[in-house]
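COMPLEX REQUEST
Ligand: iron/sulfur cluster
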Amino acid sequence: MEYKEMAASDEALEGMNEVKSAPSYTRMNHADLCSKRRSFADKAETYVDRKTGPAYHLASIAKDAIHWGLIQEREKGETGRDRERHITQYVMPRMAECKYLSDKQAAANRNWLVFMVVRYLNSEKRRVTFPPAAEVMVGGEKRRVWCDAAFVDENDPEAVTLVVYKIRKPDMTMTGSENAFERDIQLDSLILYGRQLGYKKITAAYYYLRKENDHIGQNLKCEPYFFGGGKNVVQKTDEYTGTPDEIDEELAALSKMEEDGLAPEEETEDWCRNCRFHVLCLYKKAPLRAGTEET
Ligand code: SF4
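STATUS: Structure written out below.
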């Protein structure tokens, strides 16, 4: 398919900021759907903008480093030791964006980040392309959808894998608990986006850069290859024949669930435990001593 490739950063999304992006599982867990929690989030002055934390910056550095590394390989055939050296040189100055409290903390995070990026790049043998972000109709609403990288099957130009990278360990599985996989709107939206780009056989995937058993303490203890085991590839595939299929049905139901939310009574103790308004919501005043008046 012909398209102008997307740049490595959010610049490519400029002008599309008013359009909502498709929520992923992380924003569609049960607690996030709670109507009470939503009202807290609307009012809370202490609401934390996730775009200011180190994790956000680390993810952005990793994605840009992968983008850059994939281009280096595609355009210059760069692999191996040169790759590792260049990725390190790329990542080092950008670590300042994370505003870690100490150089030691920054260095520790840089080490594992470089390892994860290089491990992935060394394992990725397909030719990459970067389709531009697009507005896609998802469940009757316009959504902003994009992927970090796309790999077209070299034997079948109608088949593509659209990838979104995540720097954490896998936090859901394809058979996972509480139907997180089925509730993920982002993967389904990526499939619609793939159709819009003109592909017919579409795989939408999350590539978690850290594997389940990777240890990133003082000494890295990680598996040497990105693919194979580790539950770090979570993906959904669709073959589009030109008529709506189960992906469309699933999206319509998920969009309605997202819109309607859940009543607080429907939340279980487990779901509430991970809610960041847990304390605020379940706070109970201490019982008054006999004879005292409530103020
Ligand atoms: S603690 Fe539970 S009921 Fe309260 S706002 Fe959070 S999800 Fe809703």
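REMARKS: The pocket of iron/sulfur cluster is lined by residues 31, 34, 36-37, 40, 264, 267, 272, 275, 277-278, 281-282 (CB under 6 Å). The chain is about 35% helix and 15% strand.
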